[in-house]
Write a structure and sequence with these properties.
By secondary structure, the protein is mostly beta strands. Helices cover 0% and strands 50% of the residues. It contains no helices and 11 strands. Strands 2, 4, 5, 6, 9, 10 and 11 form a 7-stranded mixed sheet that branches. Strand 4 and strand 5 form a beta hairpin. The radius of gyration is 13 Å and the shape is globular.
Length: 122
């Protein structure tokens, strides 16, 4: 199983980025998928998750209205579109997958990518 994130980078406050995660080695359409983020020294936290049903999404309060999670089942790719970014959004962003309970808890996810860095400067 491999999850490969891309799309991170450096932007100024108010900027936008779109992250991608290509997933291989598991039945993509049957898995709950999520984006989490982590700042050094802090716990990994939820960004957004997408259930098997593409209409089933959950967002952290801190990103609601600014981030959109989506997936392309034909290309086995998960996306996170991030708008109106602020320095508080700076973190390593990780893609994750589980075929268990689709929960916002970090320990609910079985497979993780290596992460892509997002840096937002003021």
């Amino acid at each position: 199983v491999q999850l490969a994130e891309s799309g991170g980078g450096s932007v100024h406050t108010g900027g936008s980025l779109k992250l991608s995660c290509v997933v291989s080695g598991l039945p993509f359409a049957d898995y709950c998928l999520g984006w989490f983020r982590q700042v050094p020294g802090m716990e990994r936290e939820l960004g957004a998750i997408a259930g098997i049903d593409s209409d089933s999404t959950t967002y952290a309060d801190s990103v609601k209205g600014r981030f959109t999670i989506s997936k392309d089942d034909l290309r086995n790719t998960l996306f996170l579109e991030m708008n109106d970014l602020t320095p508080a959004d700076s973190a390593m962003y990780y893609c994750a997958a589980t075929n268990g309970v689709c929960s916002s808890a970090v320990n609910a996810f079985d497979y993780w990518g290596q992460g892509t860095q997002v840096t937002v400067s003021s």
